[in-house]
Amino acid sequence: MKKIFTFITAFLMVGTMAMAQYQVGDYATDFKLKNIDGKYVSLADNPNNKGYLVIFTCNHCPYSKMYEDRIIALDKKYKAMGYPVVAINPNDPEAQPEDSFENMKIRAKEKGFTFPYLVDETQEITKTYGATRTPHVFLLTKERDRYKVAYIGAIDNNHQDASKATERYVEMAMTDVMAGKSVRQNFTKAIGCTIKWKAED
Q: What's the rounded mean pLDDT across residues 25-33?
C-alpha cells in the first residue's frame, strides 16, 4: 500500500511540474533557445541587464501582428534601462505553418525586430512559464543571479489601436520597477490567440 501511495504521489508531482505556470513573485528558469540568426540565447548571456521583458508571440496571430510595433517600441525604450525584450515563438509549426522558423526570419526582417526572436521547439519553456496566448508578457527583474516574475499579462488594454489604450500595463509595471517599488497592477489577462500545441503521441 505504501508503494502504491508513493507512486501516486510521484505521478501527481510530475504532472504538476509538467503543467507548471509562474505566478508573480516566482523565480523564473533560464532557457537556451535558438534565435533567428541560428545562435542560442539565454538570459544569462547579458549579466549586466537588470531584467527582461519576455514576450511569447508569433507570426500568424492577428493580435501579435497588431502589437509588433508596440513590442519594438518597448524594446527601444527599456533596453537602454537594462530591460530588453526577448520574444519567444511558442507555436508548433506543424499545427500552424506560418509560424515556422523560416517564416520567423522573414517576419523579423520585414518588421525590423530589434530584439531576439527565439523558437521554443519543445514548448517546454512555454509550459514552464505558463504562457497561454500570443502575445503574453512576463516582466522579470534580476535579483543577484536569479530572475523574479514582477508582472504577467497583456501589454495594454486596446489591441486594435495603441493610441486609444487607456491603461498601458507593461509601461505602468516598468514605472514601478524603475522606482524600486512593487508593481501595483502585477497581473492582467492576456488577450490573443491560443498557443498551438504539439499533438500528443
A: 97
